[in-house]
């Protein structure tokens, strides 16, 4: 790339090479923050500020569990993670294969 400046090298060469790895890292980070359970359980005491996976615990009753409601809530909790993965699936797989992990 004779005559190309720093910005052009970054946009044309470096960005396409690191995009799959950044998307894989972004999916892992999103899944980690979405599924965070233990830290909000310890810190939060107000039910209106609890995370979605933590709110799933409150679907359980004292003497009975309505499994239909619990399972449908679990599917709704998992849906955003699946959608994010499906959107970035190509970059995710490419990012994993480019790291050299076996």
From TrEMBL:
Q: Name one Pfam family in it.
A: BPD_transp_1
- In which broad location class does this protein mainly occur, judging by the first location in its UniProt entry? membrane
Q: Where are the transmembrane segments?
A: 9-31, 69-88
Which protein family is named in the record?
A: Belongs to the binding-protein-dependent transport system permease family.
Under SUPFAM superfamilies, the record lists: MetI-like
By its UniProt entry, which PANTHER family does this protein fall under?
Answer: ABC TRANSPORTER PERMEASE PROTEIN MG189-RELATED-RELATED (PTHR43744), SN-GLYCEROL-3-PHOSPHATE TRANSPORT SYSTEM PERMEASE PROTEIN UGPE (PTHR43744:SF8)
Localization: Cell membrane
> How does the record classify its membrane topology?
Multi-pass membrane protein
Keywords, comma-separated and alphabetical: Cell membrane, Membrane, Transmembrane, Transmembrane helix, Transport
Any idea where the ABC transmembrane type-1 domain is?
A: 1-88
* Coiled-coil boundaries: none
Per the UniProt entry, what species is this protein from, by scientific name? Paenibacillus chibensis
Protein name, entry field: ABC transporter permease subunit
